[in-house]
Design goal:
434 Repressor (Amino-terminal Domain), six-stranded mixed β-sheet, 2 domains, 47% helix, DNA binding, Cro/C1-type_HTH, Endonuclease, Chain A, alpha/beta, 12% strand, Helix-turn-helix domain-containing protein, Lambda_DNA-bd_dom_sf
């Protein structure tokens, strides 16, 4: 899971499937057949089929060739070209201890590294991007079955590394909605949780972070008991969102628009019952002994 340890592998990777989906949409939009596109691109229909089926490799040069064949606008084609480049380039996750990130968690981390936006809803846990080191370690050590300590430490460091997206050159926009229960569950003990609440207040001050809490008194709300993430990329219809729903032991990716739409609607419903960002910060500040720092 994105905020836990274990998950189920996917093949081909979600990143490649997203690129292939855009390539299929481009061809459909421009009314090319596979044969016609392949002929103008200068390769076989078999290769065209492999590209659209997300069969590795999908080279950046192939993406650019098809974009030019289809007459795709520069901004749109550059966005997918960059995605194809990053899908091939090694990332910081390559140095993570073997076993610290399961296969589909690695897919998620790589997608998150490319994304421009994240909407996340959590029922009982602080989002991984917001966790301090001690909180993350307590979550990891509670996992059953337990992991070797070196794997746990590596997983925690990977989570901390992910957080650089919040303040890099093109920071990830995050809209997080948590239930109030997240603030009261003393993960790691009272002292760890006090510092974690302080960390939330610090992050809420970032211009690219919106943090909202659903207060206990709100009653029933959309998506009760179902946490989820929605990753966005360039905000264009042809660069589709990817949803991620956490289950015990694995994660499920949502890649079709009809599968993601219920979660878009649910997030809107959650936003309607959550406190404003200002009232959320006031609520956290009012909790006993909230401390800033990691």
């Amino acid at each position: 899971m994105a905020d836990g340890q274990a998950a189920e592998p996917t093949s081909p990777s979600v990143r490649l499937r997203r690129i292939a989906r855009v390539l299929r949409e481009w061809r459909s939009r421009t009314e090319f057949t596979q044969d016609g596109a392949a002929s103008l691109a200068g390769w076989s229909r078999a290769k065209q089929s492999r590209l659209e089926a997300a069969t590795p490799p999908i080279r950046p040069a192939d993406v650019m060739t098809l974009a030019l064949v289809y007459g795709i606008p520069e901004t749109e084609r550059e966005a997918l070209f960059n995605s194809a480049q990053s899908a091939q380039a090694p990332g910081w996750w390559g140095s993570v201890e073997r076993g610290a990130l399961a296969a589909d968690v690695l897919d998620y981390v790589q997608l998150e590294a490319e994304a421009t936006g994240l909407r996340t809803f959590k029922v009982d846990i602080v989002p991984g991007l917001f966790q301090n080191r001690d909180y993350a370690a307590a979550v990891a050590r509670a996992f059953v079955p337990s992991f070797p300590e070196e794997v746990t430490r590596s997983g925690v460091e990977a989570r901390i590394q992910r957080q650089t997206r919040l303040a890099d050159q093109n920071p990830l926009r995050v809209e997080a909605i948590l239930t109030e229960a997240v603030l009261h569950l003393e993960v790691g003990g009272p002292e760890v949780m006090r510092r974690q609440r302080g960390r939330l207040l610090e992050l809420a001050e970032l211009p690219n972070v919106e943090l909202r809490v659903i207060p206990t008194g709100a009653g029933a709300y959309a998506s009760m008991g179902v946490p989820f993430n929605i990753l966005s990329f360039n905000g264009t219809p042809t660069d589709p969102d990817v949803g991620y729903v956490e289950l015990l032991g694995r994660g499920v990716y949502l890649e079709r628009s009809e599968d993601i739409e219920p979660y878009n609607l649910a997030f809107g419903g959650l936003r309607n019952v959550a406190l404003s960002t200002e009232d959320t910060s006031a609520l956290i500040s009012a909790l006993p002994h909230t401390k800033t720092g990691t």
